[in-house]
DNA sequence: GAAAACCAGTTTCATTTTGCAATCAGTTGT
DNA sequence: ACAACTGATTGCAAAATGAAACTGGTTTTC
């Protein structure tokens, strides 16, 4: 947090998230529920290097988008959690997914979640954010799990079924 | 366009726009209606360097987010226009502005546009996109100009009036 | 209780990208 | 002819990235 290029909200958001990896990390914590260093390192589609992941986690902690807690089951492990600021990135990520689905060569398996979130509209995003507040901030659990529904749809697509999301 | 890291829509969007300057350039073309190299170079709040601007314009042309036309008034000048793909970034930029306004130290003058677009909702974004299609793609002109409204509000804030956007 | 596997990073080093200032050649106005 | 302006390019130092090996510690396995 030295000096800012300008006070424009788009610029300031870009100064925090405007690189190739920060939002990937947040995406994996948010949608993949990856909470440890090794989970983020190994199970990522994109294959982030350990030094880059380390640097990004450090920066996201400093920027207040993530919080680190010790893991009771393993003295060396830390559990990374989203903060409210990161949870409020949901609509932005939904828009990124929607744009990517329309203008880039996405794969079907990896875009089904984006499709469902786009079709689910603001209500679904709000429900998802409530669920994230439960998972990461300890808020009361919502009745239904958006995340489970997204994961179900993903697994169905991976399994080869193609009639997902067609609101017939 | 060599190899992609993954087929995830968020990742693919990040591969195109995940740097500190690309969205700044698009923002200036979109909201500031800067259409020439020099306009983008000199009148930007953030002070982009000429080699970076040159590289970014080249990449945005290659990615299909901008299009370049010769300027009839000057043989060396080019007019940069947004493509439909870039115009569809409006909701994303609105979300970036909304998040930035909530979680970064924005300045009042530079965030009034973001505030109005956020308050205007999906309808205002759609109207704005129609206006951009008129300006950049030659589509028929809409009745009312969103851009003029945003600029008005900006100038009112700069002039010192503080009762803008308070939906009393 | 020793060995193996796992953990969160760090170190090293080559390559690439940025940031900044100076420069460039072509174009236009005077 | 000449100065100002056009969209860039060049040179160079600093920073960021990427891949792999490595570290110090922890837990599991045999």
UniProtKB/TrEMBL annotation, chains A, B:
One of its GO terms (molecular function) is DNA binding. It comes from the Bacteria. Residues 8-108 form the HTH hxlR-type domain. The keyword Ligase does not apply. It holds the Pfam family HxlR. Keywords: DNA-binding, Transcription, Transcription regulation. Gene3D superfamilies: Winged helix-like DNA-binding domain superfamily/Winged helix DNA-binding domain. InterPro entries: HTH_HxlR, WH-like_DNA-bd_sf, WH_DNA-bd_sf. Transmembrane segments: none annotated. This is Transcriptional regulator.
């Amino acid at each position: 947090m030295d000096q800012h290029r300008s006070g424009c909200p788009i610029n300031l958001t870009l100064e925090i998230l405007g690189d190739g990896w920060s939002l990937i990390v947040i995406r994996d914590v948010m949608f993949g529920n990856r909470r440890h260093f090794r989970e983020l390192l190994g199970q990522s589609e994109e294959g982030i290097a350990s030094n880059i992941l380390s640097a990004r986690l450090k920066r996201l902690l400093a920027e207040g988008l993530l919080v680190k807690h010790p893991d009771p089951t393993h003295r060396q492990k830390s559990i990374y959690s989203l903060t409210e600021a990161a949870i409020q990135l949901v609509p932005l990520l939904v828009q990124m997914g929607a744009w990517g689905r329309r203008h880039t060569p996405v794969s079907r398996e990896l875009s089904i979640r984006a499709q469902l979130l786009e079709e689910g509209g603001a209500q679904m995003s709000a429900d998802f954010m409530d669920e994230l507040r439960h998972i990461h901030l300890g808020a009361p659990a919502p009745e239904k799990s958006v995340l489970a529904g997204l994961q179900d749809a993903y697994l169905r697509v991976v399994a080869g079924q193609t009639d997902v999301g067609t609101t017939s």
